[in-house]
Amino acid sequence: MITVLVVDDDFMVANIHERFVARTDGFEVVGSARTGAEALALASELDPDLVLLDVHLPDMSGLDVLAALRAGGSEVGVVMVTAERGADAVRTALHGGAMQYLVKPFEYDDLAGRLRQVAEALGALASGETDQESIDAVFGGTPAPATSPATLPKGLSPETADLVMAALRDSGELSAAEAGDRVGLSRVSARRYLEHFVGTGVAEVRLQYGAAGRPERRYRARRSTATT
């Protein structure tokens, strides 16, 4: 079980993140902090495996929290979860050793996919010995093809997965409804394939906001996606 400390100054947002973590198999919330000082204290006290860390905190930047953790010798995994989109912040997080950087607002699947990637990376290091495959998992190298039958959830076929991925590559970016129209699937079925691709790291998703209503999820293949 991967233990998680949630750090966000907004009580409601922190609660949402805690529920998202609790929904994800293999992860458990062990604490929640509202300030940078509280985050550092709880990280020392609870020794979590992972910290979900906001950049904008009332007393100090989450990036300063990350730097303090590393300066103190902490090897805890850190996922930045923030509305901060600035390239300088992203660069600082990367150089500071953050494992992922997720921009708010997002949905459960966006966070769950990154948590699974973190779990894979932490698991790859657990034995103390590595090969190229485990090193790729840690550094975000080329993942296994999403359409491998062994990796597909129950109810998804490799043939249809190939069609959906081909449509995604050809179009650049698609919604679930558009993908379904291209390959003859319902929107719900197409979304299952697309979310699987996101979860395995061969596709990514962004939220497109319109004038009203819920944002639309738009999918695109990652550049490093392997062909089948």
Low-confidence stretches: 142-150
Q: Write out the CATH superfamily name of the largest domain.
A: Response regulator
- DSSP helix count? 9
**Structure classification:** alpha/beta
Terminus-to-terminus distance: 33 Å
**Number of discrete domains:** 2
List its salient traits.
single chain; 228 residues; alpha/beta; Rossmann fold; Arc Repressor Mutant, subunit A; 2 domains; five-stranded parallel sheet; two-stranded antiparallel ribbon; 9 helices; 46% helix; 17% strand; globular
Layout of secondary structure:
Blueprint: E1 2-7, H1 11-23, E2 27-33, H2 36-46, E3 50-53, H3 62-71, E4 77-82, H4 87-95, E5 100-103, H5 108-126, H6 132-139, H7 158-171, H8 176-183, H9 187-199, E6 203-208, E7 216-221
Description:
The protein has helices at residues 11-23, 36-46, 62-71, 87-95, 108-126, 132-139, 158-171, 176-183, 187-199, and strands at residues 2-7, 27-33, 50-53, 77-82, 100-103, 203-208, 216-221. The protein has 228 residues and is of the alpha/beta class. The model is unreliable at 142-150 (pLDDT under 50). It has nine helices and seven strands, in the order E-H-E-H-E-H-E-H-E-H-H-H-H-H-E-E. Helix 5 runs antiparallel to helix 6. A five-stranded parallel sheet has the order 2-1-3-4-5, with helices on both faces. A two-stranded antiparallel ribbon has the order 6-7. It folds into two domains: 2-124, 3-Layer(aba) Sandwich (Rossmann fold), CATH 3.40.50.2300; 144-221, Arc Repressor Mutant, subunit A, CATH 1.10.10.
